[in-house]
Amino acid sequence: MERMQGEGEVDLEQPSPLTDKEKMMIQDSWRKVFQNCDDVGVTILVRLFVNFPSSKQYFSQFKNIEEPEELERCAQLRKHAHRIMDAINTLVESLDDSEKVASVLKVVGKAHALRHKVEPVYFKILSGVILEVLGEEFPNVVTPDVAAAWTKLLATVYCSITAIYEELGWTKLSTTTG
C-alpha cells in the first residue's frame, strides 16, 4: 500500500486499486440503490446531520433545523442529497475511467475546500454514514463482500479528496493532537 502523509499528523493509506470483481459488485449494488436515489440521499444526509450536528454548519439554508422530519422535507437538503447521489453515480459509472473519476473528485474537492471551506474529515464521516445507510436500507444487496468493496471505494475517495485539499494548501487536515 502506498502511504500518503498529511501535514505530518496523519498517515493516510491509499487503498489498493479496486479489482474488476469489486467494481462489478459496486456497480451491481449501486443500480439497485440508485433506483431510490432521492430517498436514499435524503436518508444519508439526515443521518449525517442528526448523528454529526456540526456538519450542518456548512449549510446556511438548514443549519438551524433540528427535527429530522423537518430536515427530510427541506427542499434545499433534498436538492443537495440529489447532487451527492448524482456525483456518486458518476463515480460508480466511471470506475473503469480513472481520468473521469479524478476529474469528478477534483471538482468536488476544490468546491468543498475553496468555496464551502468544509473540513475534509467530513468526507470520512459521510463515507461511514453512506456505508451504514446502504447496509441498513439494502441488507440483501450490501453483503459483507459488497460492503468491503464500497469501503475500499470510499476510502479511495477520501484519500483523493484529502490529496486535493493538500494541493490547494489546505492546512487543517486533522485535529491537532496535543
Labels describing this entry:
single chain; 178 residues; mainly alpha; Globin-like; two-stranded antiparallel sheet; 6% strand; disordered N terminus; disordered C terminus; iron ion binding; transport; oxygen carrier activity; oxygen binding; EC 1.15.1.1
Give an overview of the whole structure.
The chain has 178 residues and is mostly helical. It has a single domain (18-167), classed as Globins (Globin-like), CATH 1.10.490. The protein contains seven helices and two strands. It has helices spanning 20-34, 37-51, 68-73, 75-93, 98-115, 121-137, 144-167, and strands spanning 2-6, 10-14. A hairpin with a 3-residue loop joins strand 1 and strand 2. Helix 1 runs antiparallel to helix 4 and helix 6 packs antiparallel against helix 7. The protein is globular and about 45 Å long.
Please outline what is shown here.
InterPro entries: Globin, Globin-like_sf, Globin/Proto, Globin_lamprey/hagfish. The protein is mainly alpha-helical and 178 residues long.
Question: Spatial order of the strands in the main sheet?
Answer: 1-2
Helix content range of the residues, please?
55-70%
Morphology call: globular
Q: What can be said about the biggest beta sheet? A: 2 strands, antiparallel
Mean pLDDT: 89
- What is the correct CATH architecture? Orthogonal Bundle
**How many beta-strand segments?**
2
Instruction: Give the count of structural domains.
Output: 1
The CATH class name reads: Mainly Alpha
CATH topology term: Globin-like
Instruction: Give the termini separation.
Output: 28 Å
Beta-strand residue percentage: 5-15%
Protein name: superoxide dismutase
Pfam families: Globin
Enzyme class: oxidoreductase
Domain Globin: 17-166
